[in-house]
Write a structure and sequence with these properties.
35% strand, 3-stranded mixed beta sheet
Length: 199
């Protein structure tokens, strides 16, 4: 049980035809789960604890099985973000604006430049304009969708935005954007001196 001590989880459920699924997602834990055997042991242990509250009845001869619920144990991006922060994350950003405040301040017309991303990212170095903002995501020009991350995977200092997208293969994977709000872009355009005309 030492792997569970100090761990934080989110629990949700999905109902579908024929049953219900309990989803347990790990948000943070002191344990390092990058090693596959340790990760597998952790998932099995959590699944055993959850399934203690359910039941399973089956008859293989009659091809019958019934259970109280299905279980899905996940190690979320928030865990990998917390792990990389403890190890010393690359491109750290001081969090001065919360995710909730960013969602309120983000406007259609704002621009974002991708300064850093996983190796081979096709949008690296490009500047794109926000064309729509919805409850779960926002849309760049060209109909590229960007989901709002969990608060634990987000950091913004007012100019730079760091979004953790780590996994067991690369815990410190992240996107680093430069945020150019519409108001700032307009102010920069007004403050630019006029170029002398004529030939």
């Amino acid at each position: 049980m030492g792997l569970i001590a100090g761990a934080r989880f989110s629990v949700s459920s999905q109902v579908f035809t024929g049953g219900r699924k309990i989803i347990v997602e790990l948000l943070d834990a002191p344990a390092d789960l990058t090693d596959p055997p340790a990760r597998h042991a952790f998932i099995v242990m959590i699944r055993d604890q959850v399934e203690r509250f359910g039941f399973t009845r089956s008859n293989l001869l009659q091809d019958f099985m019934s259970c109280a619920f299905y279980t899905d144990i996940r190690i979320g991006r928030a865990y990998w973000a917390a792990l990389s922060a403890r190890r010393g994350a690359a491109n750290p950003v001081v969090s001065r604006i919360s995710l909730a405040a960013f969602r309120k301040q983000l406007k259609v017309g704002d621009r974002m430049t991708l300064l850093y991303g996983p190796k081979g990212h096709r949008a690296l170095g490009t500047t794109r304009t926000v064309t729509a903002i919805r409850s779960r995501d926002f849309v760049f020009e060209g109909r590229t969708f960007m989901d709002f991350p969990r608060a634990g995977a987000f950091a913004c200092d007012g100019r730079l935005i760091r979004i953790a997208i780590g996994s067991e293969h690369e815990p410190d994977a992240h996107l680093l954007y430069e945020w150019l709000p519409t108001d700032q872009c307009q102010a920069d355009a007004i403050s630019m001196p006029e170029q002398p005309g004529g030939l």
